[in-house]
């Protein structure tokens, strides 16, 4: 029986747009392991998403390492003002509507249920200047949505950004000032 991994040994490292060439393959490898038994045609386009998000000058990424082994990551970028995913679902937006779009949070199977995802999420958002964070959650993963709700997100609507993508739950969180 495999013993759960503790997060005490997971080192978190921060990366930015200019680091993408050095971390791109790591992101792809973690994704391949995380979705090894559940890869959809939509998931197979992940390299495009890495390049799309990583191409944003404000791209931010945190990768967790256990020894030298990557165990998970979280990344995103600031939303374009006025074009945020959540805007169409909220009647009365806050005065400060600056938004960080969390694109991916992924942990390899061996490190799931160890607190690693929460640490990656917190490290990615802890020093962000934006007032809000937004993300999309696949409705086929209700436990993931419940986890985000426990972290302070709330569902504000649904969005299907691509014809072959799920009709994601749009979740919004007010970041601490």
TrEMBL record:
Gene3D superfamilies to which the protein is assigned, alphabetical: 3.40.630.30
EC number: 2.3.1.-
Domain of life: Bacteria
Keyword Acyltransferase recorded: yes
UniProt xrefs under InterPro entries: Acyl_CoA_acyltransferase, GNAT_dom
PROSITE patterns: GNAT
Transferase keyword on record: yes
Keywords: Acyltransferase, Transferase
MF GO annotations: acyltransferase activity
Matching SUPFAM superfamilies: Acyl-CoA N-acyltransferases (Nat)
Ranges of residues in domain N-acetyltransferase: 10-176
Official protein name in the record: GNAT family N-acetyltransferase
Biological source species: Streptomyces halobius
Classification of source organism: Bacteria, Bacillati, Actinomycetota, Actinomycetes, Kitasatosporales
């Amino acid at each position: 029986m495999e013993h759960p991994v503790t997060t005490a040994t997971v080192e978190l490292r921060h990366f930015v747009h200019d680091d993408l060439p050095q971390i791109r393959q790591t992101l792809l490898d973690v994704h391949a392991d995380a979705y090894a038994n559940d890869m959809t045609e939509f998931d197979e386009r992940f390299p495009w998403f890495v390049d799309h998000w990583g191409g944003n000058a404000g791209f931010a990424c945190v990768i967790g390492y256990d020894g030298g082994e990557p165990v998970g990551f979280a990344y995103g970028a600031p939303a374009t003002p006025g074009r945020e995913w959540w805007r169409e679902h909220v009647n009365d937006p806050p005065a400060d509507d600056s938004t960080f779009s969390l694109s991916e949070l992924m942990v390899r199977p061996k490190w799931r249920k160890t607190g690693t995802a929460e640490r990656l999420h917190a490290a990615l958002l802890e020093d962000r200047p934006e007032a809000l964070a937004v993300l999309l959650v696949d409705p086929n993963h209700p436990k993931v949505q419940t986890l985000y709700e426990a972290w302070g997100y709330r569902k504000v609507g649904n969005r299907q950004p691509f014809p072959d993508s799920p009709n994601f739950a749009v979740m919004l969180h007010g970041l601490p000032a």
